[in-house]
Design brief:
Radius of gyration: 20 Å
Distance between the termini: 77 Å
Order of helices and strands: HHHHHHHHH
Oligomer: single chain
Structural class: mainly alpha
Helix content: over 70%
Shape: elongated
Length: 196
């Protein structure tokens, strides 16, 4: 019986770590948040904190997973898949540290298949392409999406524009990330106006 209680406490502590770490990275920035900062905030040593994760990089990946989970649970009031992506990109302006983390880890994962983030990003892109392209396919059947646009290609391009604008925004926060994603979506969704 003590084992179950200990297991439940371990799960609760891991959840607390992820919640606190997400908030710290979002507010302080990815590079300015250390393992020690997170450990101190949850009342652990660095070694004690890493007991709950396979490595420091594993902790960072789990923070991104938690962010994705919260994004999926959020009610974005989006009328279509493009509007959903645009709403999420607009929200990212409020959490620059998480954008830094995403960009840094995605670069590491893309160049190193052994990196703990590699599987996370591969799965994330596969899931995003599958879900958004299915929604675009439905949108196409209902009429608002041009029939000559391939839903998978549109999804892939929108994700690329979104990720690329995040990188450019980190260099220059005056860029409106969402506006650029919206531009590409509008071009694909716009129907030809019938001749008069």
């Amino acid at each position: 019986m003590a084992r179950r209680g200990s297991y439940a406490k371990g799960i609760a502590k891991r959840e607390e770590i992820l919640t606190v770490a997400l908030d710290l990275v979002a507010s302080q920035g990815f590079r300015r948040t250390s393992i020690n900062d997170i450990a101190t905030a949850v009342g652990l040593t660095q070694a004690g904190l890493l007991h709950y994760f396979d490595s420091k990089d594993d902790l960072w990946v789990e923070i991104l997973r938690r962010r994705d989970q919260l994004d999926q649970e959020h009610d974005w009031h989006a009328a279509d898949p493009a509007a959903l992506l645009i709403a999420i990109v607009r929200h990212n302006v409020e959490v620059p540290g998480l954008v830094q983390m995403f960009v840094n880890l995605s670069a590491a994962a893309a160049t190193d298949p052994e990196h703990p983030a590699h599987a996370y990003f591969r799965e994330r892109y596969e899931r995003s392409r599958r879900d958004l392209s299915a929604d675009f396919r439905t949108m196409q059947q209902d009429g608002p999406l041009r029939p000559d646009v391939d839903p998978v290609e549109l999804t892939t391009v929108l994700l690329a524009v979104s990720d690329g604008m995040q990188l450019q925004w980190l260099f220059d926060p005056s860029y409106d990330m969402a506006r650029h994603v919206e531009l590409v979506a509008r071009l694909a969704i716009a129907q030809a106006v019938p001749a008069g």
